[in-house]
Amino acid sequence: MAVAPRRGGHRYTAAMTSLFDDASAPATATADAVAAIARHAPIGHFDELRGTATTEATIALTPSWRSFFSATAAALGTTSADALISHFAAQNDSLLRRIADNGVTYNLYSDALDGPPRQARPWSLDLLPLLIDAQQWVQIERGVQQRARLLNAVLSDVYGAQALVREGMLPTALVHGHPAFLRPLCGSRPAQDTWLHVAAFDLARGPDGHWWVMSQRTQAPSGLGYALENRMIVSRLFPDAFRALHVDKLAASYKTLIASLLAHSPGGRDTRIVLLTPGPYNETYFEHVYLARYLGIELVEGGDLVVRDAQVWLKTLHGLEPVHAILRRLDDDFLDPLELRADSALGVPGLVQAWRAGNVVLANAPGTGFLESTAIFGFLPRLCERLLGESLTLPSIASWWCGERSALYTLLPQIADYVIKPTYNDRGRRFVPALGHGLTAREREQWVGRISMRPEDFSAQAYVPLAHNPSWQAAPARGDGGAAAIASRAVMLRVFALSDGPGRWRVLPGGLARLAPPGKDVVSMYRGGSSADAWVTSTEATAVEPRDTRPLSTTLTPLTTQRVGLGVSSRAAENLFWFGRYTERLENATRLARATLEALAGDGMDTPETQRWQRWIGGLARSNGLVSTAVPSPEQAPHLFERALVASLGDADGREGAYSVAAILGALKQSAFAVRERLALEQWTLVAASAERFVSTLRTPADVGPASVHTALAALDQLGVDIMAMTGAQTDRMTRDDGWRLLSIGRHIERLSTLADVLAEALAGGALDSETGFALLLTLFDSTITFRARYLQRRDTEALIDLLVLDRGNPRSLAWVAQTLASRIAKLDDTAIGSTPTLLSAIELPHRWSPDALRHAARSDEPATREALVNQLRDATRNAWALSDALSQRYFSHAEAPAQAVGA
Amino acid sequence: MKLTVTHETRYVYASRVEQAHHIAHLQPVSNDVQTLHSHHLSISPTPSERSSGADAYGQPREYFELATPHSELVVTADSLVTTAPLPAALIGSDADATLAQGTPWEALVERMQYRAGQPFDAAREFVHSSPLAPVHVEFARYAATLATPGRSVHALARALCARIHADFRYAPQSTDVSTPPLDALSRREGVCQDFAQVMIACLRSLGLPARYVSGYLLTSPPPDQPRLVGADASHAWVSVYCPSKGWLEFDPTNDCLAGEGHVRLGYGRDYGDVPPLRGVIRGGGSHQLSVAVTVSSLADETPGSRPVTGQSQSQTQSPSRA
């Protein structure tokens, strides 16, 4: 038997190896071609591409960049700059698509905190990475490791013996006077005295090529998720260069972090780790979801956790389960309204006490915020000598705290050479940093006045012209005659130290490179900056230490599988429940819209029968939100109705007063986003992509009316196919845990309430008297084929009730739906076989209905009997809703009363 | 003076509280002007978790959780303390002359500045802004004319204490625990907490260290002395540092030095460091708070006639601070 050839393979490897064994002529040609079209860094800035700040136009590319371009070119089989450029252009399109597909976003804060963010901006990522060679990296790595040790030692002292303050090594103003110094923590210490599990350092490269620390983030640094996503995307776009440059992999560092949390945890092998997020409105929420998923830990909000007996618990479907370690993305202040900011609604009351008692690891420990002040930098060299007995190897950029008089008097005359920054970050004293050289003489005088008034509130940092990294510029943005496709942008590198067991830190090789907007010299993701992947490169010959060269997984497989606690968190369960309900609602609405449009186009006769089914379908369209309640029924104004139905389909914001397909897609997308960490990436992509496609298919220019019925039907058809893929993934690709059960329960509750209503109103309004109405009902129950096969051309109510209500083999019959619901609930509720789950004890569902009584009612022509049947069906809808409420109360307990602070 | 203190805090909730976390600073401290002999804190309903600890300044604090639904919380602290009288030199006509001695305020301002290698002074912690007693130019302006050249720190504090007492209206209910002292300054009114925090903010804004003192006043003073304002509830005053004389306590609400009629619960930068009882509750709806404080001198009593909590000498009021 023949073995099928493996797909993929190593097409490029052989060619590449030979290419880099010697610097061959094609490689040089490629590099020269690129050098000719890549812009230089501005005068006085280090040029990453050329490895120097010299402005000499003839300077060649650095060896790393030569390898990067020639490996890419070799794989393409060309040395032509044009071919390379068009390849990059295609790769950049692919990059943008990946970001859109993966839904990588960065939220800009809205003014109203309770509203959704104004803009969830797509994550901005440059095609070209920052390359750092191994020799440089070793310096950075050692320096960052040392800094992590140093900062940890400072924390240990400041919250313990306070020798540094007593010895005058640190001013009290920067410790006790800093609002981020948290007195409730004094005298406590974390497990193994590890305060920092994740510390970030922002580095800048000066004109001489040296790296400097510009700032440090110790509370809840962002970027670990984005760095990973950047790597996943960019390394795939340049597989040849990636291999040729022997880029250090990232995965091992993330594993180290998790292992270290376990090593510090009081839970031992049964440790449960969670990621605590402020919630979807946080600017970096995307990466919280992403990281939680990658690390294989649960994403929680403050309301999901509770402190009992000075121990942290997660609210799950089956009660409280212990949590031993919290990777938190919430700033210090907000962690615990009992001991820190009383008005924090995001935190967990009692969390500090649980931490103090040693019952939970907080990564990072609270109280480190004072280390983020620029003012602290000037003191670090001496602290390093004092605490570690070493000299500080990775220098900070020259920084002064104005509160020290001697520094103040030195600084004031040369203020033009500095950036003035706030010492403290509290609301009253924070200000936007001022660049001394950009100030007028008068402004400078004003600053000197301000600083002299309260010197300790001000710090100053020397100005460094930032290095420039090559940056891909898509053709439309170039606007300079198309001479260069590779521009240059100011770059900073955020490097992460991750805890690696007590007293040890490991540095993530690479990190998050951040680019300033074109032509600007200030780097900030918030102010329109971009990002780049950062590659630590080496040639095998110069590798200084054995490095992790395991291949990077290209899919986001969780690093850990937590086996402890089978419970799904209440929040995740509720989101999955709604994900299920919206999926089913989408399917029902799509089918209803489609069937309605087709039926209206087909049956134009103005008979009483026609009017009856039209009145029925018009009512369904209104009650299901496809048109606003103000829209007249189709039997009164068919064209108006049809137009309104089509206009509302693509209206995601409900502007037409309807809540139609696009709006449901929006809600589905939102609920999918909330449970992203539990879905396969494709599931999310599918939802996002079909929403996008559906809305864009129906979009028409503002001055034209809604799309045509033809277009609408095409869009609905496509969506129908997408929905099959979605429901298929839910059925086939998800583990049967309680989370999935709630998703399924959500779908069946929605199905039961909708279909029972459809049937009830059809019977009540005599819609089945016509061929069209009868066929329409079967379509809405997705049961046409079965019915025709079983009952041929019969059109009687008894057959209908048989198939749509009683049949235990039809997944859309009410009895089948109710039976499925009941068995899922029994499983969720751990009900003994044969007994009724408590949730269902007071709620009667259709699988309990008597078949004989129903058949009898179906045969009867008596109005009273018919009316009783209709009422029975209407009750089924009401009971489905009642069940939904009962479930919410029982399982989604975080919907309880909000916390409030009290004081006496 | 040997004093018994009973401090009852009662919350009555409109709807049931499902879960609550609290921290109490209700145990009087022992230091060189006060000795604690006994202390008992009773909590009803019985907490599901309770532990004693120390705050950043080594002062006792009690953490407790209530995990079962409840519609009333009663926390009662009973303490027995001995307070030291003021030194004779600080009483009567000699007082001003005594206060005029000591370190000039400018020297203390200088001493509070950081200079590499300069000896450390623990009082520096209390010269910085804190949330409820911040440094602000308005406070410096208010106190500026009292800061005459060479004036001793304690004389300056005494004058400031008198100025605040004269300028400010004591107005129960006019403020709450989170009223910023800048508001109190501009309104020239408040309760003891505001008087104390304004005074602290003034001293800090001049560059001088000052602490907040949370405590109580003797409810019924000796017959020859007037009944002080704020005697039925928690009280607050100010502790001011002089390098040559140590810390001395000033009560701007009563324009006096704190002596043996003052019982100290704890010291902090402002109210926020030592609130008698704080908590976060889930559920509860609106609530009614009542606080009853009784401080009585054991010397006054004949055996068996010790006042019963909640009777004649205590009153119920809300808010709880004087």
Description:
- Chain A has 904 residues and is of the alpha+beta class.
- Helices cover 44% and strands 12% of the residues of chain A.
- In chain A, strands 3, 4, 5, 17, 18, 19, 20 and 21 form an 8-stranded mixed β-sheet that branches. Chain A has a 4-stranded parallel β-sheet with strand order 7-6-11-12, with helices on one face. A 4-stranded antiparallel β-sheet of chain A has the order 13-16-14-15, with helices on one face.
- In chain A, a hairpin with a 5-residue loop joins strand 18 and strand 19.
- In chain A, helix 16 runs antiparallel to helix 19 (661-674), helix 16 (570-602) runs parallel beside helix 22 (738-764) and helix 22 (738-764) runs antiparallel to helix 28 (863-891).
- The longest helix of chain A is centred in the middle third of the chain and has 33 residues, at 570-602.
- Chain B has 2 domains: 2-82 and 273-300, Immunoglobulin-like (Sandwich); 88-272, C8orf32 fold.
- Helix content of chain B is 17%, strand content 35%.
- Chain B has 6 helices and 14 strands.
- Chain B has helices at 95-99, 105-111, 137-144, 153-167, 181-187, 192-205, and strands at 2-24, 34-44, 49-54, 60-66, 70-83, 169-170, 189-190, 210-217, 235-242, 246-251, 256-257, 262-268, 277-283, 287-297.
- In chain B, helix 4 crosses helix 6.
- The two termini of chain B are 22 Å apart.
- The relative contact order of chain B is 0.21.
- Mean pLDDT of chain B is 89; it is low at 302-322.
- At the A-B interface, strand 8 and strand 22 of A face strand 1, strand 3, strand 13 and strand 14 of B.
Describe this protein with a few key phrases.
heterodimer; A: alpha+beta; eight-stranded mixed β-sheet; globular; B: 322 residues; C8orf32 fold; five-stranded antiparallel β-sheet; 6 helices; 14 strands; disordered C terminus
